[in-house]
Each structure stands twice: as C-alpha cells, then as structure tokens.
Amino acid sequence: MHAPAxxxxxxxxxxxLTGGAILTLLTGAIQRRVNRAVLAGMTLATIxxxxxxxxxxxxxxxxxxxxxxxxxxxxxxxxxxxxxxATIVTLMSYHYLSERHIHRFEYYPLVLFATAGMVLLASAxxxxxxxxxxxxxxxxLYVLVGLARRDSGAQEASLKYFLLGAFSSAILLxxxxxxxxxxxxxxxxxxxGLSGAPSxxxxxxxxxxxxxxxxxxxxxxxxxxxxxxxxxxxxxxTSVTGFMAAGxxxxxFAVLLRVFLVALGPLQWDWRPALWLIAIVTMVIGSLxxxxxxxxxxxxxxxxxxxxxxxxxxxxxxxxxxIAGSLFYLLVYAAMTLGAFAVVxxxxxxxxxxxxxGSWVGLGQRHPVFAGAMTLFFLSLAxxxxxxxxxxxxxxxxxxxxxxxxxxxxxxxxxxxxxxFFYLRLIVLMWLQEPSGETGALGLTPTGSLVVAITAAATxxxxxxxxxxxxxxRTAAFFTG
Length: 481
Fold this sequence. Notes:
The chain is mainly alpha-helical. The protein has one domain. Helix content is 74%, strand content 1%.
C-alpha cells in the first residue's frame, strides 16, 4: 500500500498560521505576564512566514489532500488579502487593546486561528473542508467579539453572533448533505461534472444550492441574512470589527466563487436570477439603512452590507473579468475599510472612540491629517472618481455589462448615488461645521498612526494604478481542481 500524496506545500500557509497560533498560545499560557510586544511580534512573524509560503505558490496549480485543497489564482490572491488584513489588524490592536483594558493573551492566537480558517476556506475544494474551515474561523471570531468581558455590548454581540452563526452553519451542513445525496461526492470539481448530468436529481441539487447559498450569505452579510451585522459590528472591539469586515468577507466570497462558478457552474442559469435579486436588494437596503445611522460603526456595518452587494455583481457576471473584478474589489475594500476603522480607534484617547456622528463635528479643523485620511477612506467607500473605490465598482460593472447584466449595473449605480449621501454627511461634519467645545485630542498611537498611513497609501496606489493591480487580478482569475 502506498501512502496518499498530501502535497504539503498546498497547505503550507495554513500550517504556518496554525503552528504560529499554537506557539503563541502556549507562550501566553506558560508565561502569564508575557509582554504583549512578544505576542504581537510572534504574530507578525507568523504572518510573514505564511506570506512567504503563499508568494512561492503564486501562479501555480496544485491539488492536495486527495483533492480537498486546490491552490490556484483565486485562492492565492485571496490569501494575500487575508494576510494583509491580519497584519493590519495586529498592528491596529497593539495599543488599542490596552486602551480598552482588554488584557487577554488569547487575542493574538485567536487572530491567527481565524486567519488560518479563512486561508483554508479560500483554498477548500471539498464541501466538508469548507464546513470545517468555516467553523474554525467562526469559533475564533465568536470569542474575539466577546473578549471585552466588562463590556455588556460585546457580550451581547458575541452571543448573537454565535447563535445566528450556529444556525447558518447547520443550514450549510444540510446543503452539503443534499449535495452529497444528489451527486455521491462532496468534492467541488466532481460535483461540477455531475450537477448538470441527466442522472443527477435536479430538485435535490437545487435544494442543496439554495441551502449552501444561505450559509454563505450569512458569512458575507447580504440581505436578508444581514440582521446580525450592525449589532455585532457595533458591540465588538473595533479592531475585531475591522477584521470581520475585511477578512470574513474576502474568505466568504472566495468560497462562494468556487462553489457557484465551479461546482454549480452548469446550473448558473438557475441560480443567477436569485443572486441577481439578492445583489440588488443588498445594495439598496444597505445604502438606505446607512443613511439613518447616527453611530459610525453601525454606518460602516451597513456600508459593509452594501459593498457585499457590489461584489456580488462580479460573481453574477460569471466570467474571468467578473472574477478579477470581484478580487480587485475585495482588495480595495480591505484597505479602505480597515483604514476607516483604524481612524475610529484613534478618534479619542483611552479607547473611548467617537462613535456618535455629532462627536466628529469640526474634527478637520483640529486634526486635519486624520480627518483627511478619514475623508479619503469615505470618498473611496462612496466610489467617488477617481478613487480606488470608484475603480473597483467600475471593473465589476464593466464585467456585468459585458455579461449582459445591464439592469443590474443600473441598480448598482443608483445604489451608489444613495450611498454617497451618508459618506459625504460625515465629511461635511468634519470640515464644514464649527467644532464644539467638547472636541478633544485624538488618542494617537505609533502603531495606529502607521496603520492609517499604510491603508491610506494602499488606497491611493490602488486608485492611481488600478490597471496594474487589475492585471494581477486577471492573471489570478482561474480555478483548478
């Protein structure tokens, strides 16, 4: 008997992240008074190692673990987004946690475990592994959301996220079971060859597709499976909120692209109308509900929902340009939303962030640099030309038009016009209104300021050189299995 080929390099980044998480956890557990700089340094070193292992996989097609893991352009590009997100979140958290009095050594290992789950999800080529990866990242996030034990809002958010997350996981698992019942396999590549075959029970396959869509829709927060998002984003520590907004969305869309464009590709004329409707409702509802928010984190939560609808436009196009547009959008979204959350963490000293819109009045006159950074992020989130956010929307809309989805693009443009209002409202408050006497100093920290600088620079570069980044995304717009 011969041992099955594992192709360890296919899961190298995941193994590096998991090993680093375990080592960091043991370090914190054995040395209870370990310096947080040591844990943060170990986390960054782990992410650096995983980044190197990912870089050497660029452009390769590898199938490992008996077909359960597939390394391809989409998985590699998404993994780099996830590692960038984890790096930014680690830096953002360094001073923020102490200011919020969150002295838990488990924080950094949990970030690594969640990142490992996200990376594994991006390369999962089997529905069983998809479920396992989702649970790994979800369990870590449940704890991260509620890590501020003295904050009742965080505890409520954690419980709500756990209950709804468990419900969505059960639905997803039921969908996996139905897919196996219809095709006799859980391998995504094999399902692709059987999902449209005459011998396959089409009704069972449609039911499986619907349940899988519900499970994924919860993770990427699209309407009508978005109800948890505003409360959880508001209650969680801001660094964790940014991690969820950028990381979970990127990993969720990576697996959504693989399952729907590969496994369910032969059935796309059946599922595209449903996703078409979900995308429109998500873009419109997310934008409309954001208008009435008075809390910045809730505003960014509904912004996240609306942006999920825009990324769906690229998925619905179901072409190489659509895939590339979605990947480019996820990269740009990670930079600008992490930057916005970083400014929120710096918005007041001692971790008491300016969450009410009124507390941002006149900030541009007292702190023009950071108000300018927030303006950049919000203009980009709004999709105002010639920002990176505008180019991201342009590429997914272009792919949709080429695929004959003009109506979807019209709805997206209208939703963008609505969204511009609530982004510009905060900008007006910062720059065009006189500061109140209560406007105090920012809680500036070296790592927080570095994060704002990095994300602002990335947002500018993505806007100035979109074709260069898009060329890389087009090169990465392929699957293997």
